[in-house]
Amino acid sequence: MIEVVGVRFRAAGKIYYFSPGDLQLGAGDKAIVETARGVEFGEIVISPRSVSEEEIVVPLKQVIRKAGAEDERIVEHNRAKEKEALQICLKKITEHKLPMKLIDVEYTFDGNKIIFSFTAEGRVDFRELVKDLAAVFRTRIELRQIGVRDEAKMLGGIGSCGRILCCSSFLGDFEPVSIRMAKDQKLSLNPTKISGICGRLMCCLKYENGCYGCDNREGAEDVPELVEEVVPDKEAVPAVSSARQQYHRKGDKQKGKSEKA
Fold first, then answer.
1. Is 166 in contact with 159 (CB distance < 8 Å)?
2. Which residues contact 182 (CB under 8 A, 6 or more apart)?
3. For residues 142 and 61, what is the distance between their CA atoms, to the nearest angstrom?
4. How many helices and strands (H and E) does the chain possess?
5. Which site in 90, 172, 230, 261 is 20 to 30 Å from 53, CA atoms measured?
6. What is the pLDDT of residue 105?
7. What is the per-residue pLDDT across 82-106, written as a single tens digit (0 to 9) for each?
8. Main-chain dihedrals φ then ψ at residue 149, nearest 5 degrees
């Protein structure tokens, strides 16, 4: 067993395991860690715990340090620079007339890389765009093409249920969803009713899907009934019935008076 902490880098993002080392860390603490993208600022969402070696990706990297006030100021400064970079990139995309939609801009904590996320119908030749952006920002540039589900996760929104999108509020990973799930639950197969704002099947179709096959599995006849017969209180029934009879009698009398009038 290996002791790890779970770190998340954005709201409802994927959780990654890191070694806490000798640091005293707990859920809610901010931490500085080294990732494949560079040095990153994240939040501890899983307190130190022991997991098996099969659950981690080796080599397991160690948390560099617990984040302080100065680190949080750097993050706020990066957020301000991201807004400026977004406007510059939009202008460059228009100049190059590229068929792409810019979704998000993210600075790594150390500022050594800027990641531009975009959507497009097909492949986009953005080599000239990268050159222009590198000349402006003088740092490493990464353009990442994402899908429509990732777009909804980044931008957020309100679903047809009236609640904040699951993907942008708590879902860390997208799980496969099929039209078969809607059929098993006897839902309308109208695409407008079973699709999310991303245009794909709603993630919530999977939440209850497993329960709909319970009665069809082998050995279902051996499963005891979960609902017991409810026997009403004999003393309470006459009281309710008596009150109901008095109510109907009163209504009949009022009806008779109105007919005579």
1. yes
2. 188, 189, 194, 201, 205
3. 23
4. 7, 8
5. 172
6. 95
7. 999 999 999 999 999 999 999 999 9
8. -70, -40
